[in-house]
Amino acid sequence: MTIKEFAHICGCNPQTLRYYDQIDLLKPVKVDRWSGYRYYDEEQAYVFVKIKNLQKAGFTIDEIRGLLDKDNLAICRAFDEKIAKEEKRLQEIKDIRQSYQTEMNNIKDKIDAVRKKITEEMQAYNQTSEFGLHADKYEGLIDNVNRYLDNVAISNIDKFDYEEFHEGEDVEEEAEFFNMPENEDYELVYEKHDWCNIKDFIDEFYNIENGKEYALLVSVNESKKAYSTAFASTLMGLILTKNPDKNCGFTCNIEKSKDNKNHFRVFKTKG
């Protein structure tokens, strides 16, 4: 019978049969060498039913190919296995639904723990010698950092990878993440080398562009590295304080200097 007649029997579109032919699931018994017309026989209608139902049940093309030469008993067993697998997955989804709110609360608690750690380190940090800040101004800066962290927590709570954070442990940074000199999306816009304290030059880098993403890469000697969290938070807090009306993204990485000198580089997104 022609492809049109066969499609009518099977209740499908001829295009479906052409697709099955292309992927070697159901090939016609004959293709006219002159016209290219496809012809099928009646027995292939049973094969079509097998393919259609296996496909509707979620079997992959490869799985269907492996079942086409099986009898109905084997097909029924395959359906039973698929049902068992889907029921297991359904139960997993139900379990996830039950634990969802608990997990969200756990994430919030751990974000709060990170914020508390940053705040405590900033409060214990001697900001005067490094940044030249008086105590009252520094307290205001800590408040600004906390507000910034609040906004980050609200906007990224579903992205926070709490598996990576363990209270009392330092999470190892991925070095390749801050390979900014080779990142084509960023350009170097400021650099300062062999400095003693941030306060000596930070005024040179306060004016930032609205809507840009910035990455600060700071290499410091051993004494400064010991206070890297407070150092980075104070640095970013100063920049945010000087640019209150600008919507910018910041990432800051503090690493130990290889030459025991201090280096400061700023990269921003291009365009």
From TrEMBL:
Coiled coil: 76-124
Family matches, as SUPFAM superfamilies: Putative DNA-binding domain
Keyword annotations of the record: Coiled coil, DNA-binding, Repressor, Transcription, Transcription regulation
InterPro entries, sorted: DNA-bd_dom_put_sf, MerR-type_HTH_dom, MerR_fam
Pfam families found in the cross-reference section: MerR_1 (PF13411)
Residues covered by the HTH merR-type domain: 1-70
Gene3D superfamilies with a match to the protein in the record: 1.10.1660.10
Statement: the UniProt record of this protein carries the keyword Repressor: yes
The name this protein goes by in its record: MerR family transcriptional regulator
Source organism of the structure: Catonella massiliensis
